[in-house]
Amino acid sequence: MNRRRRIYEGKAKILYEGPEPGTLVQHFKDDATAFNAKKHEVIDGKGVLNNRISEYIFQNLNDIGVPTHFLRRLNMREQLIREVEIIPLEIVVRNVAAGSLSTRLGIEEGTQLPRSIIEFYYKNDALGDPMVSEEHVTAFGWAAPQEIDDIMSLAIRVNDFLSGLFLGAGIRLVDFKMECGRLWENEMVRIVVADEISPDSCRLWDMKTNEKMDKDRFRRDLGGLVEAYSEVAKRLGILSESDNPVAKSGPTLVKG
């Protein structure tokens, strides 16, 4: 993989040309960003944890028949993925009021919503990823009506799976962000879950204490981000209890 071609670099990941046609290598960086990268810090071990947590979630989604771009993990920081055409939307599924929803609608953080709510945001850092409606999505050609139906269906299935997964680990899934892409298979195209699902893209609260176990620890200057991500990994069985989560070389992870 020496001298491999860099395809794209984002705030938290780098995509490299894959070893086979139609594949990419997704590399997880230690960079932590918030507020569209206005706040930035490098936190040792974060990329390792996000790689393994996202691998665990995507593999389980594949196993239950939810289509994703994930193929396999390559090493502690990288995974092999299918090359997809990313749809320029962030899909946010909310179960509990928090973050911008609380600010916009004046709902107290922690309030259980009457039902899960799905929101769309246009992926554009320069514009601050503005919230958009289905009308915007179809009018500007970001996704077709049938694709929106597929995205909504995937979002509901992923939410059901994640809610149960984290509940079993004593964690409340407040909300999460996911992205989707078009996977071309000969003349056919289907919508799949892409990017990552990790504490970077989920709001996760401890069921008993409501302690935040996600990127809000960085956004809100709470500290202990790697320790919180490590606790999530431990509860999911990815990180062993005896491992030092803040070792200089990064966390030691299990589940080969």
UniProtKB/TrEMBL annotation:
Keywords: ATP-binding, Ligase, Nucleotide-binding, Purine biosynthesis
GO MF, one annotated term: phosphoribosylaminoimidazolesuccinocarboxamide synthase activity
Gene3D superfamilies referenced in this protein's UniProt entry, alphabetically: ATP-grasp fold, B domain, Phosphorylase Kinase, domain 1
EC number annotated for this UniProt entry: 6.3.2.6
Catalytic activity: 5-amino-1-(5-phospho-D-ribosyl)imidazole-4-carboxylate + L-aspartate + ATP = (2S)-2-[5-amino-1-(5-phospho-beta-D-ribosyl)imidazole-4-carboxamido]succinate + ADP + phosphate + 2 H(+)
Domain SAICAR synthetase/ADE2 N-terminal: 7-235
InterPro entries in UniProt: SAICAR_synt/ADE2_N (IPR028923), SAICAR_synt_PurC (IPR033934), SAICAR_synth (IPR001636), SAICAR_synthetase (IPR050089), SAICAR_synthetase_CS (IPR018236)
Pathway, per record: Purine metabolism; IMP biosynthesis via de novo pathway; 5-amino-1-(5-phospho-D-ribosyl)imidazole-4-carboxamide from 5-amino-1-(5-phospho-D-ribosyl)imidazole-4-carboxylate: step 1/2
Entry similarity comment: Belongs to the SAICAR synthetase family.
Protein name, entry field: Phosphoribosylaminoimidazole-succinocarboxamide synthase
Taxon lineage: Bacteria, Pseudomonadati, Pseudomonadota, Alphaproteobacteria, Hyphomicrobiales
Gene name for this UniProt entry: purC
